[in-house]
Amino acid sequence: MGLITSLSPQIKQYLVITGNYWAFTLTDGALRMLIVLYFHQLGYDPLSIAMLFLFYEIFGVITNLVGGWLGARFGLNRTMNIGLALQIVALAMLLAPTSMLSILYVMAAQALSGIAKDLNKMSAKSAIKLLVPSDEQSQLYKWVALLTGSKNTLKGVGFFLGGLLLTLLEFHGAILAMICMLTAVWLFSLFALKEDLGKAKNKAKFSELFSKSKAINVLSAARLFLFGARDVWFVVALPVFLAATFGWDHWWVGGFMASWVIGYGIVQSFAPAFTGKKSGQVPNGRSAFLWASYLTIIPALIALALHYDFYIQAAIIIGLLIFGTVFAINSSLHSYLIVSLADSDGVSLDVGFYYMANAMGRLIGTVLSGWVYQQYGLEACLWISSAFIALAALLSLALPQTAEVPSP
């Protein structure tokens, strides 16, 4: 307790924000795996499962855009706590009897969850910009990498938790357990977050929702294609492929997906060690181009292995691990660049716009994941993934090409 009280106010707020974000992410990952596995078990086809997440992604797009304005105008503490409350409501909706869990009803619950997730994420990422001095870019990169990496590690634990809870408690028991945990976190967060966190000095205008910065617009477009490339094969196609083609049960699918995301999060946390921090540099547009170029090759190689029936199980498992490592570095680079490029006054406006593009990429990827897999199989999903990453790499060439760590 003495150690906690001796910490600076900035560190205390960082810990509250990170803990809040962790708790939310755990339930978000578990809920996604629960829905994919449970509705696959009920006999839903891949496209129908993908449609369950349609409103989740659509409302994520809208929320990031409007949420950035709300955060700048009313404070990031409010947007973060509203996000937690909405997730609790979304989970409660899924306690309805199985007979009521129609596609439309689950889509509505997922719409609330999508709003909740992106309010929470936008608030957390924006707040870090305000807690690190502007001349400490290396420290900012480190904090962003830790937050993003730890979040994805927890999301992976959530995937594992979702498969485990479905096995042990069944669907409704799993949902109830998550509601109890998240409610406790929400009550603590109401009292722990500073009321003025993230408010812009000048009242943010609604007309300022769209970024006027060329660099942020380009980075947002690259982010759209990067995350579309991941989700086009990862969200629906891969777990259904593992269950249907390899015959894996819920435990194995959930555990494998969880292990992937946990490893992905760990790599994100250590991304600064891979991207030039030791040489006194932080990421720039050239870094983003190079790492996206490396990533482009990986789904193409997995697709070729599928096409030629070349050790398919090994190709997918090993390929996915390599993809996760390189994708994690790409994601961490982007996460640092947006926080670094964003305007400090009303930071959530720029961050919200960027994560709106991120959500749009997930939306496109999710819909394509179900439809393309159902029509053409996993190989086609992988080729689309490779093409999307190539577009992200080309866009990165238009980003600022210099970003040196300021001298101490």
Describe the protein.
- It is a single chain.
- The protein has 408 residues and is mainly α.
- The chain is 79% helix and 0% strand.
- It contains 15 helices and no strands.
- Helix 2 packs antiparallel against helix 3.
- The longest helix has 56 residues, at 137-192.
- It is globular, with a radius of gyration of 20 Å.
**Spans of 5+ residues with little confidence (pLDDT < 50)?**
403-408
Strand content: under 5%
Number of strands: 0
Order of helices and strands: HHHHHHHHHHHHHHH
Helix content: over 70%
Total of DSSP H or I helical runs spanning 4+ residues: 15
As a whole number of angstroms, the C-alpha radius of gyration is: 20 Å
Main beta-sheet strand count, sense and barrel state: none
Class per helix and strand makeup: mainly alpha
The 3D shape can be described as globular
Gap between N and C termini, in Å? 33 Å
Please state the average pLDDT score.
80
